[in-house]
Design a protein that fits this description.
Blueprint (H helix, E strand, L loop, with lengths): L1 H34 L2 H27 L14 H29 L8 H22 L7 H30 L3 H29 L9 H9 L4 E11 L5 E9 L1 H5 L3 H16 L3 E7 L1 H7 L5
Amino acid sequence: MGHDHHSGATRTRLAIVLAIVVTVLVVEILGAIFSGSLALFADAGHMFSDSIGLTVALVATVVAARPATERATFGYQRAEVFGALINGLILLFVALSVGVQAIIRMVHPEGVEVHSVPMLIIGVVGLVANVVAAMILRPQATASINIKGAYLEVLGDLLGSFAAIIAAVVILSTGFMAADAIASLAIALFIAPRAVLLLRDAARVLSESVPVETSISEIRRHLLSAEGVVDVHDVHVWAITTGHPVFSAHVVVADEVFAKARTGQLLDELNECLAEHFDVEHSTFQLEPAEHAEHEEQTHD
């Protein structure tokens, strides 16, 4: 029930932000055409990528909420990671496209005319809308890589609108038309590293690397402190999606654990240890007597 409530809240937040982004996108496209501002076109391009990314994120949350099946035993939570991967690729494409256009305008400024007043008005509208959208997404930005991607996109839009406002003020007060191209380049330079970070996070999950915040040596130390545990090997930690780590290990236990039928109690202790100290809700342990572990040394480190 808690997971369903969380997923429902996430979908609601994404739907509201998507409505805001699409509205501002239409306004910025019209404003960019009317004013001739590349900065507004850049921000509109970023908004367009956001609308696609948010749609992907919204669909991903719906898919991720589907229950596990015999063919998808962990469920569909990794759909969120694929959504984040798509968002990262879109962001990177927009950054490169806008950056190239900005450089072209800076090298060949002739014939470029920007109407600063409509550019300023639309920039302010975009800034307010993005502040609201960021506030809606921020509470869950650390809980889901999917929401994190959407949140980073909105932050990029927010700074993009801010850059457009500064450029409009500069043009209005000094007539320096190149301010528009400079603002566009600044937007592209802001978007690019965030796209790379998002792609890196998605790649870590998809490659089943150990989550950054997880220390295998620390986990092994905790497990070895349990009464009856002699050794821990063949340890694997990965994540289905952000915030959902999975753990498995072979645990060598003293003979008395088997003799006194304490295996069930020990398993409970080990599971509780991981859940309490490392937020690992899904863990699998293979309990082994010492002689079996010696046999496995031929195949495991």
